[in-house]
Amino acid sequence: MSFIPLKHLINNLSSAPIPYFRSILINELPASQAIKQSTLKGKNKFQFNLGNIRFNSSKVQYAYILEGLDKTWNTGSEHNINYQNLRPGNYTFKFKVKLPSSDWSNELSYSIQIRP
Question: Count of alpha carbons within 13 Å of 85, Cβ hemisphere only?
């Protein structure tokens, strides 16, 4: 039998969750398929399904921003984020996660270029 020192458990509980993209859809296609098309037709719809690696994710907060459109970070518990009818231009979607007792995680990002 082995024991984990309480100090290590407390440090682990206060560490930020690890963010990841569960899925990214572009015009309702997985991003890997959509980027193979020479031109994107439709409403320039982007769907980001955000996730985090944490045992108890019910209290996780998300913060996200679409640089090139949003002026400030959006925060809350929502992890399905949608944008559509984006004008031509360059955008970067960024997000991070945290627990009530942790700092914000490192940011993850996904760059988008919409051509005219």
Answer: 0
